[in-house]
Amino acid sequence: MNRTLNIAVIGCGRIGRIHAENLATRIPGARLAAVADIVGGCAQEVADQFHVPKATNDYHELLADRAIEAVAICSSTDTHSRIIQEAAAAGKQIFCEKPIDYDLTRIDAALSAVKKAAVTFQIGFNRRFDPSFAKVRQLLAAGGTGQPHIIRIPSRDPEPPTLEYIKVSGGIFLDMTIHDFDMVRFLSGSEAEEIYAIGDALIDPAIRQAGDVDTAVVTMRLKSGALATIDNSFKADYGYDQRLEVFGSKGSASAGNHAPDQHMLMDAAGVHQAKPLYFFLERYTEAYVLEMRAFVEAVLNKQPPPVTGIDGLQAVIIGLAATRSLRECRPVKLSEIR
Amino acid sequence: MNRTLNIAVIGCGRIGRIHAENLATRIPGARLAAVADIVGGCAQEVADQFHVPKATNDYHELLADRAIEAVAICSSTDTHSRIIQEAAAAGKQIFCEKPIDYDLTRIDAALSAVKKAAVTFQIGFNRRFDPSFAKVRQLLAAGGTGQPHIIRIPSRDPEPPTLEYIKVSGGIFLDMTIHDFDMVRFLSGSEAEEIYAIGDALIDPAIRQAGDVDTAVVTMRLKSGALATIDNSFKADYGYDQRLEVFGSKGSASAGNHAPDQHMLMDAAGVHQAKPLYFFLERYTEAYVLEMRAFVEAVLNKQPPPVTGIDGLQAVIIGLAATRSLRECRPVKLSEIR
Amino acid sequence: MNRTLNIAVIGCGRIGRIHAENLATRIPGARLAAVADIVGGCAQEVADQFHVPKATNDYHELLADRAIEAVAICSSTDTHSRIIQEAAAAGKQIFCEKPIDYDLTRIDAALSAVKKAAVTFQIGFNRRFDPSFAKVRQLLAAGGTGQPHIIRIPSRDPEPPTLEYIKVSGGIFLDMTIHDFDMVRFLSGSEAEEIYAIGDALIDPAIRQAGDVDTAVVTMRLKSGALATIDNSFKADYGYDQRLEVFGSKGSASAGNHAPDQHMLMDAAGVHQAKPLYFFLERYTEAYVLEMRAFVEAVLNKQPPPVTGIDGLQAVIIGLAATRSLRECRPVKLSEIR
Amino acid sequence: MNRTLNIAVIGCGRIGRIHAENLATRIPGARLAAVADIVGGCAQEVADQFHVPKATNDYHELLADRAIEAVAICSSTDTHSRIIQEAAAAGKQIFCEKPIDYDLTRIDAALSAVKKAAVTFQIGFNRRFDPSFAKVRQLLAAGGTGQPHIIRIPSRDPEPPTLEYIKVSGGIFLDMTIHDFDMVRFLSGSEAEEIYAIGDALIDPAIRQAGDVDTAVVTMRLKSGALATIDNSFKADYGYDQRLEVFGSKGSASAGNHAPDQHMLMDAAGVHQAKPLYFFLERYTEAYVLEMRAFVEAVLNKQPPPVTGIDGLQAVIIGLAATRSLRECRPVKLSEIR
């Protein structure tokens, strides 16, 4: 890797800014060449902050710029499939935030375009790069836990999204649990066979009226024979709760929460420590850097990316199956979805 | 409590010996007056060890002895219902190991006899007395976690029972998970509404041939709205894994494993600590003492026992529902069982 | 070991009662044959509670009783040396609470008598039998930490003794730190060479007026070259703080506090766990049983006891050196004391 | 703060590069305007990497550049005092790596120059900004532990410096323990009164021949009455061991090590977790950013810096006292040094 990848960020919302900052400061081999956002001065603001040479409201400009070799698609989900196809047609290497889409036909169209253009395509399942989760995967791969039998993932947000967001989010399983579905696949190395989901609006009845649940438990049977259980909540009062465990024939590997510090206070009331880091920006700071480094390295070294379009597709299929299971109150086979 | 309760132990197998030893040495207010076991010299051996005045092969002798006020029934499960009825008819206060029976009719008969005789009846759900589990319950009762939303119980044995035992055990849900079902009821203060179970023989195919599974994940919807998930394995290489967590609207209370010591070794390979205590005899040593103390106190103080016949019945109903769910591959409502 | 050791407890104060209960109920191979206490009905009360055949106000009766083979001396420190000599002359095997005495001449007299009578003599340094501390010793012995370089012991009581007690206790180093001095010897397998002590009455000025300090830090150079540091306080608001660490050429082995349960509460204020067990009766419950088992086994198997008279002597010598160091504000060589 | 501070880094060794990278990418309000290093192309290399407009072999150029408002002095210790004086004379705001010097006269000269020029002067005691240590300080300040009684600091490096470095380092107390001395002052809010040090070369006899020790234990009496104990080693096989505890009248606040991940592996051999982060670059990554942010903010807001010249001076005085104590085998009063 003795050259630099010119990359543009499309979409300068919360996640786009993270990638922009990382690309500008913490990704060896990358040069943040441009940023785009349809909203007013957003792109310019980010460009100013991180000394980016080019800002635009129209990402087509960036696709037309031959000096730009790669794009990080961070725009709203409904635009992903279209931009992927356009970027692929323009020969850009593509990093895309999850999910590709909630519609399998549009995902297919995007993945076909990527395949036809033979460009690198990496989906933003950032948690695979979290040091603790990656370490669990590594222990598994090294055989430390033997054959996986049970995968358990408690995954809870510190606060619910807005009701406006919930109404268009695709539902808890496609918006939130999708990360956990990917984690089950990542850890087990196996595809899901059948899924069963229960859930309710225990935090806020308005969430039910908005058509979603805020608390859910999902169980899965995997093709390998392993079983998985995920529990989700939109609101953990103590912060972002992101743990997981793989129990296997030779032992158990787990990942605990990350805290902002390692203090311990012992007093007459008990022993006290720091809460988990507040939310994904805090917990996955390093994971965002590492996933982008991996993308840049994959492109520069012409190697397959560590997270693929199939990974993006499969997690959506599981999410659709979970959604149907919740609605129909029965276990749903993945083969019913596709 | 300025008097002593004369109590007899019926059945001197592994668990009977534990109760005999505890009654002989660690239960203020109790006097171990007699022991019985149908097998050869078992009762006499226990009597010798713990200075018990009377040993017999026929427990009817003890029921006929008016000086004996209470019995601890530790014989094989198939004898529980009959002995409960006989003991109740004889006016004895009754502590009985779990389960009462696997057959609802026989449970009903036992509970009716107890009710008619108006004797104290406590079922041996020892885990309720485990200091960590009891502390979680206490935190919940004090409101520390708010309204329970999700209950998670990983519960794994260090090694499978023998195949002979498995064939007559009633299946994993009635033999092993029954403790976890009771724990869900104990912690949530709510009854189960519906249950779904998946499982497989991942450890040993012979267990499947014996008609059971060795690995299972169960999810439950409770009447309170809360969701529960339990995972079980017959074989955790690192020892007895007995944890639980109640996640609620204001926080999460959990109980971790207990270790034989609190050492920590830091070396070039990592940071190392002790494994969990090996099995239930080690982990629940104190719980066995505390449950018997509670029984003796309840009798002497003429107060209701902390674990009742209904608790014994309900856990079996849940176990039967889980068994049916596994067999029929669908969620089963408790109302289908009774 | 197919026989039973008849043992008597002399002194039925707090520690005597613990040994009496353990001998009556939890020490295989021992039979608690008698108890003695000079105070009114104390001995009888203990005898009643634990079904002991004999109680007396005059321990000489027990020494004269040929059926009694061993004694556990739990009387006040000032009587230890005399009773040891009498018991040795009577041919009894001897377990004696720490310290033997604060006066080296009286210790010598006691140890000479023991040697001449060739009876087993074990001193009550119970902490050596604590599962966590014993595990650290075992890791060291197995070479897990390499050659010890630094030994660190934070050792803090939950509340100060009474001023009356402090006035006759011999001072913090002979009364409290003596356990830590023994632990340094036990863990390092080396004798102390030189000691330096600083201390102050930071908790209560009345303690200074009583001639003692309530807070102290001691450092030691050992003959092996290792360094040790102990810190003590009479009052830890969070309970009994009993930790230690051995840092060596290949790693570090440490022992943490023991808690009454393994709960964890996560809420908006933080992550909370149980405080350490309150005081020595709670923390060292198991250690008291294990040390007495070891004594009984040593006697029955005619093997050397795990803690010897020399151990009792050496800890006192270190305590005297620390006391002098504090008074004279300079490092004191052990050879200055003896 | 609506302006940017132009700052130059003098000295591009290991620590200079860290500050250069942080200033280039992670310090809002700062602009890395220039870098200097006397060695060949070092400055240019750093300039290339972080897009710094100016590089030079002669830092005097930077002092003469009126656009440069501040300097971070990261050159070798023997140059600190001189550069501080020159920078102060040039009116630059000054951040200087620890220590100012090992010679009190040269420190005085530097501090006088700073005072006369009335520029901001911050010394690089980075550990004060470590999130765990800062949290302990914050808990103390909030009264959570009451009045400090005992401060304990185990502080161990993963591997010794080279013998060449050891020969010119000023000795373990001025080079390594100096951070811990500062931490004692920072946490206690009190000055040291008297110090006693023991130490030896237990890791490598060549270190003794080089005139230093590799293992040391230091105890201190503070003016507040509190006691402190520090233990150091040049070589912890398990990585950088940086913990501390403040025990006070109401409780104990401590900081544990930081690990690269929060994994836990349970297998037949035990429970295993990650080792501490390897060394200061890994452990104090965030602390280096935070201390520089604090400096930049102090300058821009014209507020006093959080670490002052007096802090730099006092730590050296304690280090000199410790060095004398080790050599003379006696407690040394700080007043003997100055």
Unreliable parts of chain A = none
Radius of gyration of chain A: 20 Å
Q: Name the average pLDDT of chain A.
A: 97
Helix content of chain A: 40-55%
Strand content of chain A: 15-25%
Total number of β-strand segments of chain A? Answer: 16
Show the largest interface.
Answer: A-B, 39 and 39 residues
State the end-to-end CA separation of chain A: 40 Å
Oligomer: homotetramer
Outline the biggest β-sheet of chain A: 8 strands, mixed
In DSSP terms (H or I, runs of 4 or more residues), the helix count of chain A works out at: 14
Q: Globular, elongated, flat, extended or rod-shaped: what is the shape of chain A?
A: globular
The SS-based structural class of chain A is alpha/beta
Order of helices and strands of chain A: EHEHEHEHEHEHEHHHEHEEEEEEEHHHEH
Describe this structure as you would to a colleague.
- The structure is a homotetramer of 338-residue chains.
- With 338 residues, chain A is α/β, with parallel strands linked by helices.
- Chain A is built from 14 helices and 16 strands.
- In chain A, strands 7, 8, 9, 10, 11, 12, 13 and 16 form an eight-stranded mixed beta sheet that branches. In chain A, strands 3-2-1-4-5-6 form a six-stranded parallel beta sheet, with helices on both faces.
- In chain A, α5 runs antiparallel to α13 and α9 crosses α13.
- Chain A is globular.
- At the A-B interface, β7, β8, β9 and β10 of A face β7, β8, β9 and β10 of B.
